[in-house]
Design brief:
By secondary structure, this protein is an alpha/beta fold. It has a single domain, classed as Rossmann fold (3-Layer(aba) Sandwich), CATH 3.40.50.360. Helix content is 39%, strand content 23%. It is globular. Bound molecules: flavin mononucleotide.
Length: 187
């Protein structure tokens, strides 16, 4: 089982979440690829590299991530998402698992809109969305501060994600890996 974690991060907080998610994947004895979108891969507003698409072709699951910018996915990551239209024509990613994560600096920063976009992107590819598992009924036990169940949604007012966010993000990675393993055993 191999999981691709493809993401954009400018100041590194999303990168920290991506690393925590990867640790969770590894905990389930699965491999992972950390694929960070960079500005050099974007020319005239378009993501131009094929490498990440080829890597994802070989993976069982993909976890999309980027900061929330102006109530939606950062433009740099949206450029990558548009590039995936190369795989939309033949629906070659259909049946892979997908999940998402985002961070913002505000608790009411519209992070959910970014996760919703990732879920729609996954739907366009015929992928199977994995939501975020979380105890929701005991205030004192709430681990995910934003209560988002669509995916991991963090609030990072500074430069470093909290220890709790590391734990919660890792759990999300483990969940995606676990579902991929179970599905693989059935097929
Ligand atoms: C152009 C821009 C727009 C932003 N818009 C939002 C927003 O809508 N909601 C929010 O909570 N944070 C917003 N932020 C804050 C970032 O999401 C936050 O700083 C995040 O941690 C950056 O991720 P990074 O460290 O991976 O680059 C914005 C930041 C920038 C630069």
């Amino acid at each position: 089982m191999t999981v691709a974690v493809v993401y954009f991060s400018e100041k590194d907080t999303t990168h920290q979440v991506a690393e925590a998610i990867s640790e969770g994947v590894e905990k389930m004895s699965c491999q992972y690829h950390l694929l960070r979108v960079t500005g050099e891969q974007i020319v005239d507003g378009r993501f131009v590299s094929d490498e990440y698409l080829h890597t994802i072709d070989r993976c069982d699951a993909v976890i999309f991530g980027c900061p929330t910018y102006m109530g939606g996915p950062a433009a740099q990551f949206k450029a990558f998402c548009d590039k995936t239209s190369d795989r939309w024509d033949d629906q070659s990613w259909s049946g892979k698992f997908a999940a998402g994560f985002t961070v913002g600096s505000n608790p009411g920063g519209d992070q959910l809109a970014t996760l919703q976009y990732f879920a729609i992107l996954a739907a366009q590819h015929g992928m199977l969305w994995v939501n975020h598992e979380m105890p929701s009924d005991h205030e004192e036990n709430i681990e995910n501060k934003l209560n988002a169940q669509m995916g991991f949604a963090g609030v990072v007012p500074g430069d470093t994600i909290s220890k709790r966010d590391v734990t919660v993000a890792a759990r999300h990675g483990s969940r995606v890996a676990l579902f991929s393993k179970r599905y693989s055993a059935l097929t």
